[in-house]
Amino acid sequence: MALVQIRELTKTYRQGDEVICPLRDVQLDIEVGDFVSLMGPSGTGKSTLLNVVAGIDKVDSGSIVVDGVEITRLTRAQLADWRAAHLGYIFQTHNLIPVLTAYENVELPTLLLPMSAAERRKRVEIALEAVGLMDRADHYPRQLSGGQEQRVGIARAIVTNPTIVVADEPTGSLDAKSSEQIQVLLKRLNRELGMTMLLVTHDERVASLATRRLRLDDGRVVEAAASTSV
Is the overall model pTM greater than 0.85, yes or no? Predict the structure, then answer.
């Protein structure tokens, strides 16, 4: 069984008197350890698909099963608990809390889970080490570069060792050098730590990092060319 199974998924919303259907009868399997990129023109529903997989948006019909749990049947409270334990989300803008240090920002998701202070500390240190920022643990966001802030955001997304990590344009707000560093980091997390990732991007170069490349075409997910990146 695939880690993520999406079946006959449809999502609509209203814009004035018009009904928009960004996702139409979507079928998709994501295996353990996959690195999947999703491309498509602006407004085609890429972020919508990410958000329904993350349990943030509700769907009109269809099902999403993640590691045996049909999240489309969960209540709002159950979804909140599921996200805390199983989902890592990397945002385009890192969304760090400015009055907290890098360490404290990364620690936040662990506060929602039943674990000891020692285990929490170990998880945070491992996550910061994975993104190369242990030496910046006591720094506040204003003391970090944009690329470093995004790396803190990535550490926060992986600190709970989630079942799946979703990333919404994770390099979209970065300069070329920082973007390159984040691309290398994401690829390493997938290859070395085996993290399953679903990434939305408009950048062909970022998409080429993935082991599977998908596109949204008229509300449906289709396979794109296989990645040849190293």
Answer: yes
